[in-house]
Amino acid sequence: MKRIALLAGTLGAVIAGGVLHLLGAGPAGDALWAGGTVLALAPAAWWVASALRAGRLGVDAIAVLALAGALAVREFLAGALIAVMLAGGRVLEDYALRRARRDLTALYERAPRSARRYEEGVPRLIGAEEVRRGDRLLVPGGELVPVDGVVESGSALLDESALTGESLPVEHRTGESVASGVVNAGQAFDMRATATADDSAYAGVVRLTRETEAGSAPVVRLADRFAAWFLPATLLLAAGAWLISGEPVRAVAVLVVATPCPLLLAAPAAIASGLSRTARQGVVVKGGGALETLGRARTLVLDKTGTLTEGRPQVMDVVAAPGGDSDEVLRLAAAVDQMSSHVLAAAIVRAAHGRRLALPAPEDVSEVPGTGTSALVKGRRVRVGKATGARSSPWEAAQRARAALDGAMTVWITVDDQVSGVILLRDAVRGDAGRTLRRLRAAGIERVVMLTGDRADVAETVAGVLGIDRVLAEQTPAAKVEGVRDEARRATTMMVGDGINDAPALAAADVGVAMGARGAAASAQTADVVLTADRLDRIADAMDVARRTRRIAVQSAGTGMALSLIAMAVAAVGALPPSAGAVLQEAIDVAVILNALRALRPIRGTRLPLDRPTSELLRRFEREHADLRRPLELIRDVAGRLGRRDPREALADLRDVHVFLTRDLLPHEHDEEARLYPAMVRLLRDPEATVTMSRAHAEIDKLVRRLGRHLDLAADDGLRPEQLDDLRACLYGLYAVLTLHFAQEEEAYFSLASSSS
After folding, report:
1. Residues 56, 234 contacting (CB under 8 angstroms)
2. Which alpha helices (H) appear in 23-155, and where do they start and end?
3. 109 with 285: CB under 8 angstroms?
4. What residue spans define the domains of the chain?
5. pLDDT-derived band of residue 98, with 50, 70 and 90 as boundaries?
6. Cβ-proximal residues to 649 (8 Å cutoff; 6+ apart), any chain
7. 706 to each of 580, 631, 641, 710, how far by Cα in Å?
8. Which of 10, 380, 510, 731 has the fewest CB atoms within 10 Å, measured from its CB?
9. Catalytic site includes residue 303
10. Which pLDDT belongs to residue 478?
11. Per the database record, which ranges form the Hemerythrin-like domain (predicted)?
12. What is the 3-state secondary structure of 698-744?
């Protein structure tokens, strides 16, 4: 308010003095202009004194000299204009920083303040700080989720844009986690609190946001170093112009156009704008220095688990023992695991819910940590966990061999001491990982390194899929630190991780990035950048913003300083009087600040533009993929049973496979060819972009026709022996082509929809 009052006072003096001059009262007008000059001289002197006490001598000293010089040479209009320029520059700078930090401020201003807790079956309004773990809460439509928790009944449709930057509402089903600070965009739902307000995700984001500052960026510190030589250079030029011409007014003119320094205004405004832009996208950057270093990174070091992979196991297959049913195996396992807190148990229960299996209530539950859980389910003793006993059937040996080849974990299910089946789980690679790494390479990353404590064979498999340059596997936390330091000695290095064991490595990197949505608090506190959304593509978004922000800051400052130096030279030779110089310098200052604020605008960067119709189309086909994936396993299972079953039963299995392929799968593939692929060609602007995918469709059609011909050739009493080899090759080939094709579409196309916000 004081700076606005100063601007109003100085501007009023200029206008009133001008009116008096027009009315012929020149001396009175000069007096008003002189008063406006004096009005700004006092605070300007105070700013210089404050800077000196802090050990800095900035360009505000030039403003003081210009104001005093204007009074001395009786250039009262110039002095009054300098006063307006100085006050206006301060107000404009305050506005720029306030506008730039608006999104950061909005994050903690909208923190949840209240909650509706059930007490004796009735929801009662309480303060959010009163919520305790285990409380049952009601979240009405349109209100904020007050604390972290899980959906207890029904489903929740949440607007997570403020926390994650995701523009479309996200649906969470019963048992799924929800974060505090997001808005209920659907019907009211009940949730169970898993954290207090202080320990919830939104509170963590607020704490991290308060740490962000613009002033520590290297480009901002450059302004301080610039002032060290710019001030004496300006004084020498002003003194030289006075000595050579004998006209002190030229010295004042030089001082006028040198005040204030555009670099000091442009750099903080641009950096603060960049911090605000990243916050809007779900990325909290702890300071301008971190933002600029992020933009200069050339080496990317990544943890595997939770960073390149989902960070939680997912059921990849349920295999029933010969003569069993996979749905029944999963249903029994999930019924027992409902009572377990183990991460694999949670994955099994999620898979059962995904198949819409009804889970009976277990009795007499017993859990042995590290071994498994057992319970009575409808009178049968069901055990879920590690295999027991030394004996192993050929079928069990085959499942172990497959798990080893796939890098999968196994959970064995026994019913009344008889092996009923096995569940294979794997930590899947993130769908957006491949595209994000390609975007980061386009943004300037030249080398990608995976640093993980996982087994070498598992790490190499993931690295091969993603095209990673170097793999360091089976690393201890100390070895991770040394690995990061080794890379940092070669180039500016960014490290991305999420676990407690990643915290030292994040600190060792030039810029550490923590996956803060589900990651450990230690990593989030150590890191320079925290992703509030559990999405890897936000790193690429942040790097796009960082590079653009630095470019705008340097561009604004460089252009402004070049114009100021030219104006100083013109003033030194007497071609620019003080009054005109003051107006010109004000225009330069306004221009550089407005240019710096361009960093607030959204940018496409390395992200492909995706319109809503195309996004909805991609999401539709992505959902269809999810529904088709499980039946794909039927193809491989039938191929594995060929030759071991009765010919009539094998023929019935093949007919089931053929019905699935012709009724469900092929219509999906043909619809993709007709609708999705033309949209991808338009989006990618490359008619060759879908050629390989179309070739896969042709191969799928050919193999399905081949399978149909085998069915036509089969006798009424079943398959003939001479058909088995070709049928087995056809089915395994079809399974391999479909699995690869699905993976390619999900990475190349569907990942665009998941990162379109």
Report:
1. no
2. 26-53, 60-72, 76-100, 102-109
3. no
4. 2-101+214-271+548-600, 113-210, 283-310+430-532, 314-426, 612-754
5. low
6. 718
7. 86, 19, 19, 6
8. 380
9. yes
10. 78
11. 618-752
12. HHHHHHHHHHHHHHHHCECCECCHHHHHHHHHHHHHHHHHHHHHHHH
Q: What is the average pLDDT across 355-377? A: 83
Helix axis angle, 262-280 relative to 218-245, nearest 10°? 160
- Cα separation, 273 vs 285, in Å, equals 12
Strands (E) across 402-480 are located at: 409-415, 418-426, 447-451, 470-472
Considering the four listed CATH numbers 1.20.59.10, 3.20.20.140, 3.40.190.170, 3.40.1110.10, the one that applies to the domain covering 314-426 is 3.40.1110.10
Structure tokens at 11: 């501007």
Asked if 755 and 432 touch (Cβ cutoff 8 Å), the reply is yes
| Residue labelled with tokens 């704008």 | 273
Give how far Cα 733 sits from Cα of 632, 635, 736, Å.
12, 10, 5
Among 135, 148, 303, 653, the one annotated catalytic: 303
Query: Tell me: the pLDDT tens digits for 281-305?
Result: 778 887 777 888 888 899 999 988 7
Torsion from C-alpha of 600, 604, 607, 611, nearest 10 degrees: 110
* Residue 523, pLDDT score: 55
* Cβ atoms of 312 and 343 closer than 8 Å: yes
pLDDT at 520: 47
Closest of 440, 436, 408 to residue 422, by C-alpha: 408
pLDDT of residue 389: 62
Give the model's pLDDT for residue 166: 53
Contact 579, 75 (CB under 8 A): yes
Residue whose structure tokens are 């996982």: 454
Measured from the Cβ of residue 222, the count of other Cβ atoms closer than 10 Å reads 15
Which CATH number is 283-310+430-532's, of 3.30.70.890, 1.20.120.140, 3.40.50.1000, 3.20.20.140? 3.40.50.1000
Q: Say whether domain 113-210 belongs to CATH 2.70.150.10.
A: yes
What's the rounded Cα separation, in Å, for the pair 441 and 494? 13
pLDDT, tens digit (0-9, with 9 covering 90-100), for 19-60: 888 888 888 887 888 888 788 888 878 877 776 776 666 666
**Mean pLDDT, rounded, of the chain:** 81
Q: For the whole model, what pTM was predicted?
A: 0.65
For residues 727 and 305, what is the distance between their CA atoms, to the nearest angstrom?
39
Residue 210: per-residue pLDDT: 57
In the block, tokens 């960082």 appear at 546
CA torsion angle for 361, 362, 364, 367 (degrees, to 10)? -130
* 184-238 pLDDT, tens digit each: 888 889 999 988 888 777 776 666 555 544 544 555 555 556 666 777 888 888 8
What are the DSSP E strand ranges found in 416-486? 418-426, 447-451, 470-472
Whether 314-426 and 113-210 are alike in CATH topology: the answer is: no
Q: Which of 77-86, 219-228, 250-259 has the lowest mean pLDDT?
A: 219-228
Alpha-carbon span 207 to 198, nearest angstrom: 10
Under CATH, to which class is 612-754 assigned? mainly alpha
Cα torsion 666, 671, 673, 677: sign: negative
Q: What is the DSSP string of 521-579?
A: HHHHHH-SEEESSS-THHHHHHHHHHHHHHHHHHHHHHHHHHHHHHHHHHHHTTSS-HH
Question: Rounded to the nearest 5 degrees, what angle is found at the Cα of 547, between the Cα atoms of 544 and 552?
Answer: 120
Cβ burial 174-201 (10 Å sphere, 16+ → b, else e) = eeeebbbbbbbbbeebbbebbbbbeebb
Q: Over the stretch 697-736, which tens digit does the pLDDT of each residue have?
A: 999 999 999 999 988 888 777 788 888 889 889 999 999 9
Residue 329 and residue 413 in contact, taking contact as beta carbons nearer than 8 Å: yes
Token pair in block for residue 647: 């010919």
Measured CA angle at 186 (ends 184, 190), to 5 deg: 65
Tell whether the model's pLDDT for residue 431 goes beyond 80.
no
**Can you tell me the distance from the alpha carbon of 545 to that of 280, in angstroms, rounded to the nearest whole number?**
11
